[in-house]
Amino acid sequence: MDYFSYQNRSLFAEQVACKDIAEAFNTPTYVYSRATIERHWQAFDDAAGEHPHLICYAVKANSNLAVLNVMARLGSGFDIVSGGELARVLEAGGDPTKIVFSGVGKTEAEIEYALEIGIKCFNVESEAELYRINSVAKELNKIAPISLRVNPNVDAGTHPYISTGLKENKFGINIDDAVELFKWANQQEHLNVQGVDCHIGSQLTDLSPFLDALDKLIKLIDQLAAAGVTICHLDLGGGLGVTYKDETPPHPSEYMKVLMEKLKHRPDLTILFEPGRAIMANAGILLTKVEFLKQNEDKHFCIVDAAMNDNIRPALYSAWQDIVPVEQRDSDSLSYDVVGPVCETGDFLGKNRELSVEAGDYLAVRSAGAYGFTMSSNYNSRVRAAEIMVDGNTMHLVRQRETVESLWAGESILKD
Ligand SMILES: Cc1ncc(COP(=O)(O)O)c(C=O)c1O
Ligand SMILES: N[C@@H](CCCC[NH3+])C(=O)O
């Protein structure tokens, strides 16, 4: 069942008409479906079965407190990449002992914060970072649980900007150097070696790169055992793709089944996953209003009130996201470029879209729940959108639209 579907030609989010949301809260507005988030998270968790595992939702995909809280109530773990994300997870009621901390540039302050809170594990991305974690832990007289994120050098076959598991990418530690570093870490009083980690990229639509990476990681874990380093968890990262247009990624349960099948003889290993997009992308839409229709030469433009500052994915990755009317019309359609008010030619939400639309209509950008609001900005001094969570027949405002005054909060002018 799709939780964003038409009833009598009107788009609904669960049991709430999107037109009612737009009228009540104005536009642009992000709308999330609680039931969809829960169903997607559960698909990962259920498919892991009895094997010890932990789903650590990748906070960067969508870090709204209400979203994190829905996940926390399901018992989710979290994958974070900054002190800010750590604070958000705690604020949302997340369990610190289920947090893994990824990212290539952890500061001393962030490491201290995470050690004080008692997170599950640091996913260490370089030799220098390992030394830094060791010295901060020593200073605080704590033991830092660590996992090394290795770069298995597999081609994820995704957009170059979101591929992370190749030798030339900045992420992780060269898999060939990992054993020596693990051996060193294993001897440190203030480090506790827990796991091996990898994340090879995002929006993967094929299982084979995941399987190639898994094979390499299992081999590494065996090499480590032979070298006297015991590994108790394997973190396979996130990266499972979704359908934006005509992609056919495996369903989360199929992805999990195939990976877990390979791991069934390893009950000694707790398996961690860090899905972000696969949980959130299709759990959200972006509602926007048509301001004007305009024609230049033979090109038709549909100018809407959402822009690249609200959803940068089309401009950044040439990403395609479906754009649909909130209320369907019978009139003939035209091919439009759907563009925002920002002063950039790259400010478009979609190109050559067949739409039957008039000024004042509402449109919905689909698959917008992941890397939508979290990548939004105030460019052109535009306030960031409101966020709504729908739960059955109820809509909850989970983030107010920013005010213009908030744009310069913290700024000041010279006295003379
Ligand atoms: C370390 C890490 N884990 C998890 C994710 C989540 O990826 P995705 O949203 O593709 O599942 C990312 C982002 O690509 C990441 O960098
Ligand atoms: N932000 C990207 C994905 C990057 C994933 C983060 N490592 C997107 O919108 O597709």
Automatic annotation (TrEMBL):
N6-(pyridoxal phosphate)lysine: modified positions: K60
Cofactor or coenzyme needed: pyridoxal 5'-phosphate
InterPro entries assigned: Ala_racemase/Decarboxylase_C, DAP_deCOOHase_LysA, De-COase2_C, De-COase2_CS, De-COase2_N, De-COase2_pyr-phos_BS, Orn/DAP/Arg_de-COase, PLP-binding_barrel
Active site: C343 (proton donor)
Coiled coil: none
One GO biological process term: lysine biosynthetic process via diaminopimelate
Residues the entry annotates as binding substrate: R277, R313, Y317, E344, Y371
Domain named Orn/DAP/Arg decarboxylase 2 C-terminal: residues: 30-369
Reactions catalysed, as given in the entry: meso-2,6-diaminopimelate + H(+) = L-lysine + CO2
Pfam family, one: Orn_DAP_Arg_deC
Domain Orn/DAP/Arg decarboxylase 2 N-terminal: 35-281
Molecular function terms from GO: diaminopimelate decarboxylase activity; pyridoxal phosphate binding
EC number assigned by the record: 4.1.1.20
PROSITE patterns, alphabetized: ODR_DC_2_1, ODR_DC_2_2
Keyword entries, A-Z: Amino-acid biosynthesis, Decarboxylase, Lyase, Lysine biosynthesis, Pyridoxal phosphate
Binding site for pyridoxal 5'-phosphate: G239, E274, P275, G276, R277, Y371
Annotated metabolic or biological route of this protein: Amino-acid biosynthesis; L-lysine biosynthesis via DAP pathway; L-lysine from DL-2,6-diaminopimelate: step 1/1
HAMAP family assigned: LysA
Subunit-level organization: Homodimer.
Annotated function: Specifically catalyzes the decarboxylation of meso-diaminopimelate (meso-DAP) to L-lysine.
Homology family: Belongs to the Orn/Lys/Arg decarboxylase class-II family. LysA subfamily.
Name of the protein this chain belongs to: Diaminopimelate decarboxylase
Gene: lysA
